[in-house]
Specification:
The structure is a homodimer. Chain A contains 36 helices and 33 strands. Chain A is an alpha/beta fold.
Chain lengths: 907, 907
């Protein structure tokens, strides 16, 4: 027989699975000798048994009886007693905290008889009837599912009838009458009498708590927080203590350090003559702990001692609920407290300095998500703001600027010193200039991995996408939302962490942590306002933890960067190489025309001319990049343009040509458009993502890859001759078969040897494969025969493994899918371990078996996602590569992964 | 030390890997005691050693010396001897026959001295000098790489000078002079003397044969025939015998049965006083074997005996080359002969009747490709025809009809009794009516798995696609190719097996095998012209072999069929169920409008109205289908429309709206178009293949799947009440996660129970998953928790595993990829075992582990591909499903797979 009931004296804090968080911690405090009101916990196992059978297990009823008898014996009181009744609270408590989600019933044990006993015990008739009134009200709502308004209305009516405004002004007689009214409501609404038998009250309350596990709001909350649905909740039955028995009673909440800032020292609120729910309801203003000390120094001293005891015991910030009943302190709850990002770093290093935890443990106490929160400037939450709409949070930060509707305007106004926010329906590579110039990017279409989102994230520019409530008209240069029209030049503000879009300006708070990351500790500290010790402590804490992460991590951290300035930033933020240089991003403006000409070339002559014009440009690109990344690996991906992004839009061009014809226009331009339309029609692809891309394009368009390989080799040779240490690597995109790799590798080897010969240098430029198709992963043993390294392109790998187009899919049904629980997190944000992750695992194992010195990395968006970094550590990659802005996060998480895997993961 | 040389007396026919086909068979004939000229074989291992080191292995030189000495001893002649010289031929011989690809040098051993010896031995000076002339010519061309025209020109000049026209009119003196001229050519062209030392001749000839393995044409041939590049060739050194030593000499080729028709009895050609190369060159008309018998009854009798001996020994049709030298028969080569499809079936059953092979073996002697050749009507190859262009062969057959350019015209003219060929740039579901009405379909765009190709193949309609030389103008209703213009109504002919398009009519030969398959053996035989015993034998042979295949196969064969008439045909051709009913094909014409309305519905009312109109239509569809398939499993796939196929084209509609605006048009229609355009823009997907499809659409559009599930359940209930045996199954398309399956399954269970209750019947309708995304395969253990069956959709699985869109990719670079050896066969035609196949294997193993009674099938195009059928047998599927027309092929190949796996594959 399973044991369904644990007395507080039997459990401990490590039994959260079984006793829930609250129960386990109550047991732990009891074990520590702290003053916890006696009670017992009904296990999550009992809840699961209830959920599967639909009724309370018979053994549970017996065990509850035994536990109740023990409780009555301990306290010398009995449930329902006419003289000195035992009252208990029934509270839910799951493994993971689900604040406000589930049910509590207080004052179980009160009935028409024991209310007299309570009067005697408390000497306060009003208190006794008020307690009874509260029981019926809570019980009716929670257990009997009666609309709470019925009770609230009756209470209000009574106050009106008595001509009073506060509950406390009602007399014992009023409350007695109200109890009778409440009983009538129960009878009318539930068709039954309010149960007078205390054990029946208790059993029904326990059942109600179990049932509350499966309410819609609880399920929704769990989905959002990714808590499994089958855990169930424990139930705590605790003997009641009362903070509302006069001025020498009260109730409070306290923390062992400030959870908002991380400041050391006690912190909390106290409310005299009140119960816990009164604190939550915020009816009266609370007092500080200092006030409490003044009111009741003995209780405060005892509390102080308990706080110290708990923090030492839990070795972390504790969050405590307590009650004083007529001068006697009772501990009602404790847990490791939640805290802000800044507090997390400060507290972690404080505890190290206090020799309570090690630096390894400090590293486990903070997260990459917290670090990235510290990195973004944020809107001042206290300021006035007017919400215009909400889109998807695509790249964090807080940006304020003039709305502009074209790349050209953005560059123009930015050059004139103005902060601008580029607003587009969606962006394409032509918008890049404007995106670089803008402080923020806002689109009305596209998902979190749309062009706008990916590029903005790469640049660390604040970005909100897919705000479909906005009607963006780039011709009229307006945003329309209902009646509101925003014209070009008007100020808007976007919050890339929340997706909110505000009308007008909102004040912004800058981040000292970014100063530190960019310029180092000393510079960042020097930059702080005189005497801002708190922030200084925070910056030092970040430095200490991050430095430790760098020491312990096994994963190297590279950055995705396409230009020398990107590379510079990446390096200053700690990137140990470039894991992905997307060369197609180099083809903008003039060069894009050359690429278009190359792809649409009618003959070899046209093609050769385009190639010849491109070679010196590309060589300079790579030389600059290799100069910036001197001594560090620099992985250059051969061009992988989605064809349609490099050609005019079919629909727009068709309309243009049709209109020209309709208007009877003629001339050279019309002829050119007509010819271009024919070419675009010929090259048009129904599914460009699955079309002529990557290595396919490279093998079909003569000279394209050769141009780039030659440019890389020549740039390397020049750097070598200039005394540099270039470490270029060439990456082949979208290979599905080893044959593709062999063809490119053979050509690369030939070209590199040619350049080495011509330039008189020794060139070693490894050629590797981007693993971004399921087939590449499934045939990794063969791919490794031709590739010296693998880099997982997990964006595309996710698209093909799931058959989702990231552009199309996120808007269309992700919200529906999240709502219905099909997915809990977008597989484009956090790697899907079961599907995509399995392919990665297969490729790592089989690739390395075929070539033991194969270098393995990841360069998809997941490289900067905390949870995914842990996965990549586990499967044994050598590095992750992410956008420069995410490099610190990846460094931290790689350190955390190394610590939490206990270092037994040697590669 | 490896043995590089095998005497003919040492090898046997099973050593083809080592000795090549020719060498192994020469050894086998020697072992049988047949008169083979003595000789030896240099192994493929020697060739591989040569290819890797670039020179002949030294051990090889020694072994050749030993073998030559043995040969000289046996024959009592010596190489280069002045009195009675030994001459040898040097011939290539790889494991797989590569006709015409590689090199041969005859008469090695002749030089200025031994030409005298040959004169003495033969008593024919002219013959000796002619042989010498031939040696220098062949050697010069083959070994020394001299342009053959130099020799041919000199020969022609000599004939002109002598005033003769035939080689044979040149005298010994002329030939002697020609030898000297040839030597001069050798000196001039190669910078060296023609080697006089016989051993040097031999070594150089061996090297030349080895080198011929790696010529471009040989590599190309191997790529086409899928022969590995690293096998290498063997070299046969055979003592020369001469068929050109007078009228009692000669040479011939014979077969033990007729390889063209399969008729029993000898069959061959004989050319007196000639060498083998003369037969190939076709200079003189050959004689029949009967003529040969008359000329030389003794040699003929000996040949006859050898033929019988060989056929009995090889237990198959043998193809033999022989030479008679002055009345003595020599066997120069034998091998199992190639044959036509019809001959294959006839010979296989003949050999069974002759008790030479078993029926199991007969089954292994024929292929599905041969059966399908027998099924298609073909153009009469002897008729005059004018080739217009060549496209891709998409669905075999030979169709002749009037070119029509719209579905409506096709239906109209076909209804009037005319044969029509529907010509379109590409087809879409709206063309289906026309495609059904047409005898053939021709498109200028799209690949082998485009809509046109897939649908035509499914219907067994002849189809050629992607004929991009055709300029198809559906408005002007013309096809233009260069100067040629074909107008609507003019006759064209298309060959779906070759992709050829002919101008005008071409006579067609119908298939008796189809009569058999459709109507059974007796009906087919009755249908034949009086006395056509040959065809009758063929039809009986097909029946016997196919019936045997049905007996031994483990795989069931289902068909992909969307309508009751399809199902009827499938069933008559032997389908044991429907493996895939594509319900989206049911939504044409009026119904398509309803689906469009459903998808674009602005509110619940519109949606409900559309659903209500569709329910009775769908119910009737399914009732008809289940009636036709009474008693057999019928798998109905819930609707999976690529969204764009059900909506107007964005570009066309944009042009239309822009033009209307330009023209200042207004009115209701303009407003409607404008609204429609907005909706289409909203729903537009960059990559529809990866977009809102399959189960995603079903979960997003309320009521869509429920409609279909209800229709299936109600149709089943009606069939049950009518005494039928419906076995409907519901298949969920495009699931990537088990959660999607659970959601649909739960809804299905609820609806089915509801219908069962309402109709008062017991309904059992399994719900399963189409496995067509990598993630579905990778998480098969979980998918199996919700699915009662899996059906692999290998088309889509191939698209996502490779990241190829079949529509876009085939045209764009498949030809380039095939040319460069990246792929040898389209993975859309034959399953890619290494990539896609691995996913299938994973899903089969892990799915079955999770649910041991899981039913497993395949419903992609691969279900009817012979090689793929063997794979599906190996991995243990329960059934394959293919288009009705391919059902007989699948039955045959499933039988062959069972026989060749030795039946040890229990599931």
């Amino acid at each position: 027989m399973a044991t369904y009931v644990y007395d507080f004296s039997e459990g401990n804090k490590d039994l959260k699975d079984l006793l829930g968080g609250k129960g386990a911690n109550l047991a732990e405090m009891t074990r520590l000798g702290l003053p916890v009101p006696p009670g017992f916990t009904i296990t999550t196992e009992a809840c699961r048994a209830y959920m599967s059978s639909g009724e309370l297990p018979p053994e549970l009823r017996v065990e509850v009886t035994m536990a109740l008898r023990r409780l009555e014996d301990t306290l010398g009181r009995a449930l329902g007693d006419f003289h000195d009744p035992l009252l208990v609270s029934v509270r839910s408590g799951a493994k993971y905290s689900m604040p406000g989600m589930m049910e509590t019933v207080l004052n179980i044990g009160l009935n028409d008889a024991s209310v007299q006993g309570l009067t005697k015990f408390s000497g306060d008739e009003r208190f006794a009837w008020d307690s009874y009134r509260r029981l019926i009200q809570m019980f009716g709502k929670t257990v009997l599912d009666i609309d709470g308004d019925r009770f609230a209305d009756a209470l209000d009516a009574m106050k009106v009838a008595r001509g009073v405004t506060a509950d406390t002004d009602l007399t014992a007689a009023d409350l007695h009458e109200l109890v009778e009214q409440f009983k009538t409501i129960v009878r009318e609404e539930s068709g039954r009498e309010f149960p007078q038998h205390p054990r029946e009250q208790l059993d029904l309350a326990i059942t109600a708590v179990f049932n509350s596990w499966n309410t819609d709001r609880a399920r929704l909350y769990r989905r959002r927080e990714r808590i499994p649905n089958d855990l169930g909740t424990a139930v705590n039955v605790v003997s009641m203590v009362f903070g509302n028995l006069g001025e020498n009673s009260g109730t409070g909440v306290c923390f062992t350090r400030d959870p908002a800032t991380g400041r050391t020292g006690d912190y909390g609120d106290y409310l005299p003559n009140a119960q816990g729910e009164d604190v939550v309801a915020g009816i009266r203003n609370t007092l500080t702990l200092a006030d409490f000390e003044e009111l009741d120094p003995t209780s405060f001293a005892e509390l102080r001692q308990a706080m110290r005891r708990l923090e030492t015991h839990y070795r972390d910030l504790c969050d405590i609920e307590f009650t004083v009943e007529r001068g006697k302190l009772w501990m009602l709850q404790t847990r490791v407290g939640k805290r802000t990002a800044g507090a997390a770093f400060r507290i972690a290093t404080q505890l190290v300095d206090e020799h309570l935890i090690t630096l390894d443990e400090a590293l486990e106490r903070v997260t990459g998500a917290q670090l990235s929160k510290l990195m973004f400037p944020q809107f001042d939450v206290d300021a006035d703001r007017t919400l215009l709409a909400t889109g998807m949070a695509a790249s964090p930060g807080a940006a304020v600027g003039a709305a502009v509707f074209s790349s050209a305007t953005a560059q123009e106004r930015a050059a004139a010193g103005e902060d601008v926010i580029l607003v587009r329906r969606e962006t394409n590579p032509d918008d890049l200039g404007g995106m670089i110039a803008a402080v923020g990017v806002l689109t009305s279409r596209g998902g979190k991995t749309s062009h706008a989102a990916v590029v903005a994230r790469g640049m660390g520019t604040t970005c909100v996408v897919g705000a479909d409530a906005l009607d963006v008209d780039v011709v009229a240069r307006t945003i329309t939302v209902g009646d509101v029209v925003v014209r070009e030049g008007e100020t808007i503000a976007i919050d890339g962490s929340s997706g909110e879009i505000f009308l007008g300006s909102v004040p912004v708070v800058p981040s000292p942590v970014v100063h530190y990351l960019e310029e180092g500790l000393d510079a960042a500290l020097a930059h702080l306002p005189e005497g801002d010790e708190e922030t200084a402590e925070l910056v030092r804490a970040v430095d200490r933890v991050l430095t430790h992460a760098d020491t312990v991590r096994r994963l190297r951290v590279h950055a995705n960067a396409d230009t020398a300035p990107d590379a510079h930033r990446a390096r200053s933020w700690g990137a140990q190489g470039i894991g992905l240089c997307r060369t197609e991003h180099m083809f903008l403006g003039e060069r894009r025309v050359l690429i278009e000409r190359l792809i649409l070339a009618a003959d070899d002559g046209e093609r050769e001319a385009a190639l010849e014009a491109l070679l010196p440009l590309q060589r300079t690109d790579f030389e600059d990049l290799l100069t910036e990344m001197d001594g560090l690996p620099t992985t250059i991906r051969l061009i992988d343009p989605p064809l349609h992004e490099f050609l005019p839009d079919l629909t727009e061009l068709s309309v243009q040509v049709a209109l020209a014809q309709e208007r009877g226009e003629s001339g050279e331009q019309v002829e050119r458009d007509r010819a271009l339309l024919a070419a675009v029609q010929r090259m048009h692809e129904a599914n460009p993502m699955l079309g002529l891309r990557g290595v396919r394009l490279g093998l079909v368009v003569p000279g394209l890859f050769a141009l780039q390989i030659r440019a890389v080799a020549e740039a390397s040779a020049r750097r070598l001759r200039a005394g540099g240490r270039p470490h270029a690597e060439i990456m082949v995109p979208l290979a599905a078969s080893v044959m593709e790799l062999f063809l490119v590798r053979d050509e690369a080897e030939r070209l590199i040897a040619e350049v080495a010969e011509a330039e008189g240098v020794e060139l070693s430029i490894p050629v590797g494969a981007m693993i971004e198709l399921p087939r590449a992963a499934l045939t990794a043993d063969r791919m490794a025969q031709a590739a010296e390294f693998f880099s997982f392109g997990t964006n595309d790998l996710t698209q093909t493994t799931w058959g989702f187009s990231r552009d199309d899919v996120e808007g269309a049904f992700f919200s529906e899918y999240t709502e219905r629980g099909v997915i809990s997190v977008s597989p484009f944000e956090t790697i899907d371990r079961r599907g995509v992750g399995r392919l990665v695992r297969i490729a790592v194992e089989e690739g390395r078996r075929a070539r033991p010195d194969l270098t393995l990395g990841v360069c998809g968006e997941h490289g900067g996602d905390p949870e995914s970094v842990h996965f990549f550590h586990e499967v044994g990659l050598d590095y992750v590569s992410c956008s420069p802005f995410r490099v610190p996060v990846a460094r931290l998480e790689a350190g955390r992964a190394a610590v939490s895997s206990g270092g037994d993961q040697t590669r």
